[in-house]
Design goal:
heterodimer; A: alpha/beta; eight-stranded mixed beta sheet; 10 helices; 12 strands; 31% helix; globular; B: 338 residues; alpha/beta; 2 domains; four-stranded antiparallel beta sheet; 24% strand
Amino acid sequence: MSEVILKTTDLVREYDLPRPSIFSKQSRLRVLHSVSIELQAGRSLGIVGESGSGKSTLARAVMGLERPQSGEVNIAGKDIYALDRAGLREARKGFQAIFQDPYGSLDPRHTVRTIISEPIVSLERGTSTAERNKRIAEVLEAVGLPLASADKFPHEFSGGQRQRIAIARALITRPALIVADEPVSALDVSIQAQVLNLMMDLQEKLGLSYLFISHDLGVVRAITDRVAVMHLGRIVEEGPTAEVFDNPRHPYTQALVAAVPKPFSGRRKRIRSDAPPQTPVHTATTAAGCAYAAVCPMRQEICRTRTPEAKPVSPAWSARCHFA
Amino acid sequence: MTKPLLRMTGMSVELTAGTSQVDIVCDIDLELKRGERLGIVGESGSGKSMTALAVMGLLPQRMRVRGELSFDGRNLAGLSEADYCDYRGRRMAMIFQEPMTALNPVKSIGAQIAEGRRLHLGETRADAEKRARALLDRVGLPAPRFDLDLYPHQLSGGQRQRVMIAMAIACEPDLLIADEPTTALDVTVQAQILDLLDELVEDTGTALMLITHDLGVVSEMTDRIAVMYAGRIIETGRTDDVFARMAHPYARGLFAASPHGAALAPRQAGEGRPRLNAIPGIVPDPFGRPPHCSFAERCAYVQPDCRRAIPALDLINTDENVEHRAACFHPRERMVAP
């Protein structure tokens, strides 16, 4: 068993709902329901789910950007929400983020040099200029961009190259953990493959760990070792990526996998249902019962009355369903 | 009914920028009959959306159509805006990619759906709204939950896309163009929308032109496909045939690079994770397209003659009267698995 780089324990994050009147009681929307994940050093964990499932909230909580109401985020053995400002600044060197939009996440008025050296400027004060230039050259080489690109502006690059710049910025503090929130969804297929390959190369070379968030099951399958499927703020299934996608045990995972159109599958087979399609929504309360029960094809009476626990399918694989 | 509804012969879209002119889309030959489903596949910058906009007469000001573009026997190139309005929305309609921005936020969905019928068919407000109600039911937004008085911001992404589809089919168009209709949606919602489109095409017999970059979507939805790269069609034919053969190296590369292809590739035992088969390099800029095969710089099978001329769209095979053509001097022979 290798070292655990990231561990969250019973993470709960709630947002305040608008109050109908100033005298009414404050109600809250629970977006993360006791989320616990664990990531081994040098491995990658994928988080998949639809929009609104809380995957980006989880990423923000892990990055220390949104304090959860309860629960802990341990990165390399330190609870990041228990640290003071100086301690957090020190710890931030160990984890960095890559965001989805390669156009919006780089300041258009800064040169690439300024953009990628920003983490060392703010987190490692007192680094000499020579050292800084050396580090810039190092990361640019690592992501496969020519050294001359340091003095260009973001608009001079294509989407794939910009995402390489974002990766360079994340790497410059030599982090152990990278949180990637939909890093390739805005890119074309052929460019997407280039960036994913780069991320895999870097992982092997630098021993990085990835928390990889995506709605694209194919991409997650290509880059992660383990996957956690999120539905309405709960992890409904977690296990080794290939096994979970080949033989999903939770009905929600089954629905997700079945919904992906595949080449060579011939003409579409329509799923005829008489009931109007409905989408389950977050509930303000933590009501008993399974959150997926409303649309689940295999629901039983027990699904409405008892909240399912995570049931082990195999030692490394669990599903939160009464019938898994 | 064998006469094609839409015919493009040597159609190009010309962009004037300053003193220079370039063809954003060159030499497109396409035909589409009623009830047929055509998929157009390509990456961003391949000209697939511009082809659709050219048909709809919605090209940006600086662009112009050259060559033949005819709809139901009438040449659309150079048609006046007033004449175009008789076609757009009535005979052909388009579903756009972004359901968030393509709807008018200050008009109720009922008014937006009824607008086309009132304008094109001269229906009264009451009749058109009755029809709008039926259309909303048709696309799976039943009363009373989905009232005509709702505004777009009260709906989710998938629901808005359903409203867009209702608007597009309001006047029972002969041609429906869907430009990346499901790209902004989650997979389960995407499945619902694709089911709906499939059902509509079957029931109404409209022609469908589906533009997408998702090979899974085209494979499940279309009869014929055209793969575009750098403004040209590089491979076209029956969907099954194109997928089985993938004669053009770009078509093959695009498939191998997609995670679908990676899932099919055998996993090697041993150290390390299998890499995706990325296509090196980037799509050439429209202003810097080479005078020879535009894929030559990125192609793994490039030969000296690839850098001499632009390959024509040559016949490879004919299956059920549909020609399978590819624009490559050295088309790949071996079939792709499975």
